[in-house]
Amino acid sequence: MVRALRSNLHDVDRALAKMDAGTYGTCERCGSQITEERLEAIPLGAALHRLQEAGRMTSPGRRVPRVCLLVCDSWGVGDAPDAATYGDEGSNTLGNTSREVGGLDVPTLESLGLGSPHRRPGVAARAEPGTAHGRATEISAGKDTTTGHWEMMGIRLDRPFPLYPEGFPPEIIQGFERAIGRRVLGNVPASGTEIIQELGEEHLRTGLPDRLHER
After folding, report:
1. In this structure, is the dihedral angle defined by the CA atoms of residues 148, 149, 154 and 158, taken in order, positive or negative?
2. Which of residues 24 and 211 earns the better pLDDT score?
3. pLDDT value of position 62
4. Who contacts 61 (Cβ-Cβ below 8 Å, separation ≥6)?
5. 3: Cβ–Cβ under 8 A, 6 or more apart, which residues?
6. What is the 3-state secondary structure (H, E, C) of the chain?
7. Contacts of residue 37, Cβ cutoff 8 Å, sequence gap at least 6
8. Which of 129, 176, 186, 198 lies 20 to 30 A from 205 at CA?
């Protein structure tokens, strides 16, 4: 897996260098233009193609060399259009939490626009000059963490990842156990904090790894 990730990163670096040089989308062997169908054939290629298209709409010389992205996980601001598909209608972690505690005192986040476009108890609808805010809705199929993080980096999934509500099936978990040379604990759907409370002591005592399907 590590080798595959390093290979992907190498491919991304090469692609970005070609975009800078204006040669991305040109075949290295024959020098002809690669069709959009081929560029969109795999998720990574599709993401790079969309990145190239976005770059064409940006003024030259304005590319940002580095971005620091901070993600507040499990901090939703309202349900998505397909919430009913996953039993999440009415979900609004930030709004429900702020009402439950009688309002939030978060002046820095407030200055960044946390109270807009929807009001939160204790958070004013304001934003400092030079900031930007908004509400994004995932367009990929699926609701898991990996899907959301991939989309933030430009990779859109048209098919959701498979789900295992009863835990990973034997053909997957047994192959994993053979690969690591030991059995695993916690092959069940659970949150990370729940599985630590339930199996943390056994993990420390036995050294057996936790393997959970996080919901």
Report:
1. negative
2. 24
3. 60
4. none
5. none
6. CHHHHHHHHHHHHHHHHHHHHCCCCECCCCCCECCHHHHCCCHHHHHHHHHHHHHHCCCCCCCCCCCCCCCCCCCCCCCCCCHHHHCCCCCCHHHHHHHHCCCCCCHHHHHCCCCCCCCECCECCCCCCCCCCCCCCCCCCCCCHHHHHHHHCCCCCCCCCCCCCCCCCHHHHHHHHHHHCCCCECCCECCHHHHHHHHHHHHHHHCCCECCECC
7. none
8. 176
What value does the mean pLDDT take over residues 176-186? 85
What's the residue count for the chain?
Answer: 215
Q: Which domains, ranges and CATH numbers included, belong to the chain?
A: 2-56 (no CATH), 83-152 (no CATH), 162-215 (3.30.70.1250)
Compute the distance between CA of residue 95 and CA of residue 75 in angstroms, rounded to an integer.
9
Q: Model's pTM, two decimal places?
A: 0.54
CB atoms within 10 A of CB 163: 13
Compute CA distances 204 → 70, 114, 200, 201, 209, whole Å: 31, 40, 6, 5, 9
Residue type, 21: A
Please name which of 42, 19, 174, 200 lies closest in space to residue 208, comparing C-alpha atoms: 200
